[in-house]
Amino acid sequence: DVKVTQSSRYLVKRTGEKVFLECVQDMDHENMFWYRQDPGLGLRLIYFSYDVKMKEKGDIPEGYSVSREKKERFSLILESASTNQTSMYLCASSSQGLNTGELFFGEGSRLTVL
Amino acid sequence: AQSVTQLGSHVSVSEGALVLLRCNYSSSVPPYLFWYVQYPNQGLQLLLKYTSAATLVKGINGFEAEFKKSETSFHLTKPSAHMSDAAEYFCAVSDRGSARQLTFGSGTQLTVLP
User: Fold this and answer.
1) Of the partner residues A43, A50, A101, the one whose CB lies closest to the CB of residue B94
2) Burial of A66 by CB count in 10 Å (0-12 exposed, 13-18 middle, 19+ buried)?
3) CB contact, 8 Å: A1 with chain B?
Protein backbone atom coordinates (compact mmCIF):
# COMPACT_ATOMS: atom_id res chain seq x y z
CA ASP A 1 0.00 0.00 0.00
CA VAL A 2 1.54 3.30 -1.09
CA LYS A 3 2.00 5.81 1.65
CA VAL A 4 3.02 9.29 2.60
CA THR A 5 3.86 9.35 6.27
CA GLN A 6 4.10 12.44 8.41
CA SER A 7 6.03 11.86 11.58
CA SER A 8 3.84 13.79 14.00
CA ARG A 9 0.06 14.06 13.91
CA TYR A 10 -0.15 16.64 16.70
CA LEU A 11 2.47 19.03 18.02
CA VAL A 12 2.36 21.82 20.59
CA LYS A 13 5.27 24.26 20.59
CA ARG A 14 6.11 27.58 22.19
CA THR A 15 6.71 30.83 20.35
CA GLY A 16 10.32 31.05 19.20
CA GLU A 17 10.96 27.31 19.18
CA LYS A 18 12.45 25.61 16.14
CA VAL A 19 10.03 23.08 14.67
CA PHE A 20 10.74 20.19 12.32
CA LEU A 21 7.98 18.45 10.40
CA GLU A 22 9.08 15.28 8.67
CA CYS A 23 7.53 13.56 5.68
CA VAL A 24 8.49 10.26 4.06
CA GLN A 25 7.03 8.67 0.92
CA ASP A 26 7.53 5.13 -0.30
CA MET A 27 6.43 5.60 -3.93
CA ASP A 28 9.77 6.75 -5.37
CA HIS A 29 8.12 10.03 -6.37
CA GLU A 30 10.26 12.86 -7.65
CA ASN A 31 8.00 15.69 -6.47
CA MET A 32 7.20 16.50 -2.88
CA PHE A 33 5.16 19.33 -1.46
CA TRP A 34 4.30 21.06 1.79
CA TYR A 35 0.91 22.71 2.09
CA ARG A 36 -0.72 24.63 4.87
CA GLN A 37 -4.47 24.17 5.44
CA ASP A 38 -6.55 26.78 7.23
CA PRO A 39 -10.36 27.00 7.50
CA GLY A 40 -11.85 29.01 4.65
CA LEU A 41 -8.53 29.32 2.87
CA GLY A 42 -8.15 25.84 1.42
CA LEU A 43 -4.63 24.58 0.85
CA ARG A 44 -1.77 26.96 0.25
CA LEU A 45 1.57 25.80 -1.08
CA ILE A 46 4.57 26.58 1.11
CA TYR A 47 7.42 24.87 -0.74
CA PHE A 48 7.89 22.08 -3.20
CA SER A 49 10.82 20.00 -4.39
CA TYR A 50 11.22 18.23 -7.71
CA ASP A 51 14.50 16.51 -6.95
CA VAL A 52 16.94 15.83 -4.15
CA LYS A 53 18.44 19.08 -2.85
CA MET A 54 16.18 21.10 -5.16
CA LYS A 55 13.42 23.33 -3.84
CA GLU A 56 11.15 26.07 -5.02
CA LYS A 57 9.07 28.56 -3.10
CA GLY A 58 5.35 28.24 -3.21
CA ASP A 59 2.79 30.90 -2.44
CA ILE A 60 3.55 31.44 1.27
CA PRO A 61 7.21 30.56 2.00
CA GLU A 62 7.86 33.31 4.54
CA GLY A 63 8.85 31.93 7.93
CA TYR A 64 9.53 28.45 6.56
CA SER A 65 12.41 26.53 5.07
CA VAL A 66 12.71 22.99 3.71
CA SER A 67 15.27 20.26 3.31
CA ARG A 68 15.41 17.35 0.89
CA GLU A 69 18.57 15.33 1.39
CA LYS A 70 17.06 12.03 0.25
CA LYS A 71 14.47 11.37 -2.42
CA GLU A 72 11.95 9.87 -0.02
CA ARG A 73 12.16 12.52 2.69
CA PHE A 74 11.06 16.14 2.71
CA SER A 75 11.28 18.22 5.86
CA LEU A 76 9.57 21.49 6.72
CA ILE A 77 11.37 23.72 9.19
CA LEU A 78 10.01 26.61 11.19
CA GLU A 79 13.13 28.42 12.40
CA SER A 80 11.27 30.42 15.04
CA ALA A 81 7.67 29.41 15.45
CA SER A 82 5.02 32.09 15.81
CA THR A 83 1.38 31.88 16.81
CA ASN A 84 0.24 32.68 13.27
CA GLN A 85 1.87 29.43 12.16
CA THR A 86 -0.69 27.44 14.12
CA SER A 87 -2.24 25.35 11.39
CA MET A 88 -2.62 21.95 9.75
CA TYR A 89 0.38 21.04 7.59
CA LEU A 90 -0.01 18.54 4.78
CA CYS A 91 2.77 16.81 2.91
CA ALA A 92 2.17 15.38 -0.56
CA SER A 93 4.09 13.67 -3.32
CA SER A 94 3.61 13.06 -7.02
CA SER A 95 5.32 11.36 -9.91
CA GLN A 96 7.25 13.49 -12.37
CA GLY A 97 6.43 11.42 -15.43
CA LEU A 98 2.71 11.24 -14.75
CA ASN A 99 2.45 14.68 -13.33
CA THR A 100 -1.08 15.67 -14.17
CA GLY A 101 -1.74 16.96 -10.71
CA GLU A 102 -2.51 13.76 -8.86
CA LEU A 103 -1.04 14.21 -5.43
CA PHE A 104 -0.76 11.64 -2.67
CA PHE A 105 -1.20 13.19 0.75
CA GLY A 106 -0.13 12.32 4.24
CA GLU A 107 -2.60 12.50 7.10
CA GLY A 108 -1.42 15.90 8.23
CA SER A 109 0.40 17.41 11.18
CA ARG A 110 -1.61 19.74 13.35
CA LEU A 111 0.71 22.32 14.90
CA THR A 112 -0.29 24.59 17.76
CA VAL A 113 2.08 27.40 18.69
CA LEU A 114 1.46 28.93 22.11
CA ALA B 1 -2.74 32.99 -13.28
CA GLN B 2 -5.17 30.30 -12.34
CA SER B 3 -7.79 30.35 -9.63
CA VAL B 4 -10.65 28.28 -8.30
CA THR B 5 -13.88 29.39 -6.66
CA GLN B 6 -16.03 26.98 -4.70
CA LEU B 7 -19.50 28.37 -4.08
CA GLY B 8 -20.77 27.48 -0.63
CA SER B 9 -18.39 26.68 2.19
CA HIS B 10 -21.03 24.42 3.77
CA VAL B 11 -23.62 22.26 2.02
CA SER B 12 -26.17 20.07 3.76
CA VAL B 13 -28.22 17.38 2.06
CA SER B 14 -30.48 14.62 3.28
CA GLU B 15 -29.41 11.03 2.90
CA GLY B 16 -30.55 9.83 -0.53
CA ALA B 17 -30.73 13.34 -2.00
CA LEU B 18 -28.68 14.73 -4.86
CA VAL B 19 -25.28 16.14 -4.01
CA LEU B 20 -24.13 19.17 -6.01
CA LEU B 21 -20.90 20.93 -5.13
CA ARG B 22 -19.98 23.89 -7.30
CA CYS B 23 -16.59 24.80 -8.71
CA ASN B 24 -15.65 27.53 -11.16
CA TYR B 25 -12.15 28.07 -12.43
CA SER B 26 -10.11 30.57 -14.32
CA SER B 27 -7.07 29.58 -16.31
CA SER B 28 -5.12 31.13 -19.15
CA VAL B 29 -4.67 27.75 -20.81
CA PRO B 30 -6.85 24.62 -21.03
CA PRO B 31 -6.67 23.31 -17.50
CA TYR B 32 -6.47 20.03 -15.70
CA LEU B 33 -9.23 19.95 -13.06
CA PHE B 34 -9.52 17.82 -9.96
CA TRP B 35 -11.76 17.06 -7.04
CA TYR B 36 -10.18 15.88 -3.82
CA VAL B 37 -11.97 14.66 -0.70
CA GLN B 38 -10.80 14.91 2.90
CA TYR B 39 -12.46 12.73 5.50
CA PRO B 40 -12.17 13.80 9.15
CA ASN B 41 -8.65 13.63 10.54
CA GLN B 42 -7.21 12.41 7.26
CA GLY B 43 -5.25 13.79 4.35
CA LEU B 44 -6.76 14.47 0.95
CA GLN B 45 -7.39 11.78 -1.62
CA LEU B 46 -8.18 12.11 -5.30
CA LEU B 47 -11.85 11.71 -6.17
CA LEU B 48 -11.64 12.35 -9.91
CA LYS B 49 -9.77 14.34 -12.53
CA TYR B 50 -10.35 15.94 -15.94
CA THR B 51 -7.41 15.97 -18.34
CA SER B 52 -9.12 16.87 -21.66
CA ALA B 53 -10.50 13.48 -22.54
CA ALA B 54 -14.24 12.99 -21.91
CA THR B 55 -15.97 16.04 -20.44
CA LEU B 56 -17.99 13.87 -18.05
CA VAL B 57 -15.63 12.30 -15.58
CA LYS B 58 -16.54 9.48 -13.24
CA GLY B 59 -14.77 9.08 -9.95
CA ILE B 60 -14.79 6.89 -6.90
CA ASN B 61 -17.79 6.32 -4.61
CA GLY B 62 -20.37 7.22 -7.29
CA PHE B 63 -19.23 10.81 -7.80
CA GLU B 64 -18.91 12.44 -11.19
CA ALA B 65 -18.13 15.89 -12.56
CA GLU B 66 -18.72 17.61 -15.88
CA PHE B 67 -16.27 20.00 -17.49
CA LYS B 68 -18.13 22.90 -19.11
CA LYS B 69 -15.75 25.20 -20.90
CA SER B 70 -18.42 27.79 -21.78
CA GLU B 71 -19.30 28.14 -18.10
CA THR B 72 -15.74 27.59 -16.80
CA SER B 73 -17.24 25.13 -14.36
CA PHE B 74 -16.45 21.68 -13.01
CA HIS B 75 -19.29 20.88 -10.62
CA LEU B 76 -19.27 17.66 -8.60
CA THR B 77 -22.43 15.56 -8.35
CA LYS B 78 -23.68 12.35 -6.84
CA PRO B 79 -27.26 11.16 -7.42
CA SER B 80 -27.87 9.84 -3.92
CA ALA B 81 -25.98 10.97 -0.83
CA HIS B 82 -24.80 8.49 1.76
CA MET B 83 -23.85 9.22 5.34
CA SER B 84 -20.29 8.18 4.54
CA ASP B 85 -20.01 11.05 2.01
CA ALA B 86 -19.77 13.58 4.84
CA ALA B 87 -16.37 15.19 4.30
CA GLU B 88 -14.67 18.29 2.97
CA TYR B 89 -14.33 18.53 -0.79
CA PHE B 90 -11.72 20.56 -2.63
CA CYS B 91 -11.69 21.56 -6.27
CA ALA B 92 -8.28 22.22 -7.80
CA VAL B 93 -6.87 23.45 -11.11
CA SER B 94 -3.51 22.93 -12.74
CA ASP B 95 -2.26 24.81 -15.76
CA ARG B 96 -0.83 22.34 -18.25
CA GLY B 97 2.38 24.25 -18.48
CA SER B 98 3.12 23.97 -14.76
CA ALA B 99 1.60 20.73 -13.69
CA ARG B 100 3.77 20.49 -10.61
CA GLN B 101 1.49 22.88 -8.81
CA LEU B 102 -2.17 22.81 -8.07
CA THR B 103 -4.30 25.76 -7.03
CA PHE B 104 -6.94 24.64 -4.57
CA GLY B 105 -10.31 26.13 -3.83
CA SER B 106 -11.28 27.01 -0.27
CA GLY B 107 -13.25 23.81 0.21
CA THR B 108 -16.87 22.80 0.77
CA GLN B 109 -17.90 20.93 3.89
CA LEU B 110 -20.63 18.43 3.05
CA THR B 111 -23.01 17.38 5.81
CA VAL B 112 -25.39 14.48 5.19
CA LEU B 113 -28.50 14.51 7.35
CA PRO B 114 -30.29 11.29 8.30
Assistant:
1) A101
2) buried
3) no
